[in-house]
Write a structure and sequence with these properties.
236 residues, mainly alpha, 2 strands, elongated
Length: 236
């Protein structure tokens, strides 16, 4: 069984390690590389892999791949690299602060969900258009929007206040457009950025916004760049 290709999340963590001045040698016996290997294995991304999956030797080779792109590296890197390796290096080599922030966030979310399969239950076709931050960050955001109990409470409150459910961004009303079949249909967006998430945070009704499907996808597309209110103002 062939192991899955490296993902954006895995490469972000590995490149963040690469730029750590104290990473040590790119050797499979390096304790820090062994630790990184264990972290990569714990990510809630891949469901199927074999015993060599992200082992210390493979992680050391990936770090050597990054070295081949680095003009400041004193040595010779490996050249068995991919287009995604090059893309990730080009994107973050001049923005190491963002790289560090994303890596820290991925680690935090992985730790919070080490005993949960919720993130893996988000289908890949929902993720593929939203790779700016990484699979784990997007999937975790989606899990927070799937609490059916609080979603029902939010819809009930808004309908009681307005007598209808319409998108808070563009005003789209599913009933107005589709008739009775659209009754009660609208999506929920979690407005609190994951960067501000704290363990054991409880989602409140004010944290949720009712939005149409199109606006929801656009909100996720700029999930790291715009707050809900900024996106709303930008659209209008």
């Amino acid at each position: 069984m062939k192991n899955p290709n490296w993902t954006r999340d895995e490469l972000i963590l590995t490149l963040d390690f690469y730029f750590d001045d104290n990473h040590g040698s790119f050797d499979k016996k390096n304790p820090k590389i062994i630790e990184l290997s264990n972290l990569l294995k714990s990510l809630p991304i891949h469901k199927v892999y074999n015993e060599k999956f992200r082992n210390p030797n493979g992680v050391a080779l990936k770090l050597s791949n990054f070295a081949s792109y680095d003009p400041d590296y004193n040595g010779k890197g490996m050249y068995a690299r991919s287009l995604l390796d090059e893309s990730i290096f080009d994107e973050f080599s001049k923005d190491k602060v963002r790289l560090k922030n994303l890596a820290s966030q991925i680690k935090q979310l992985t730790k919070l969900n080490e005993n949960s399969n919720e993130i893996q239950n988000i289908e890949d076709d929902e993720v593929e258009d939203f790779i700016t931050e990484g699979t784990i960050i997007f999937r975790y955001h989606k899990t927070r929007e799937r609490n059916s109990k609080i979603i029902k409470q939010k819809k009930k409150l808004v309908f009681k206040q307005l007598g209808k459910l319409e998108c808070e961004i563009c005003g789209f009303d599913f009933v107005e457009k589709y008739g009775q079949i659209g009754s009660g249909f609208i999506e929920c967006h979690h407005k609190i950025p994951l960067s501000k998430y704290v363990k054991n945070d409880v989602t409140k009704l004010d944290d949720l916004a009712l939005v149409c499907s199109n606006c929801h996808r656009m909100l996720h597309k700029e999930i790291s760049e715009l707050s809900f209110e900024n996106f709303k103002n930008k659209y209008r």
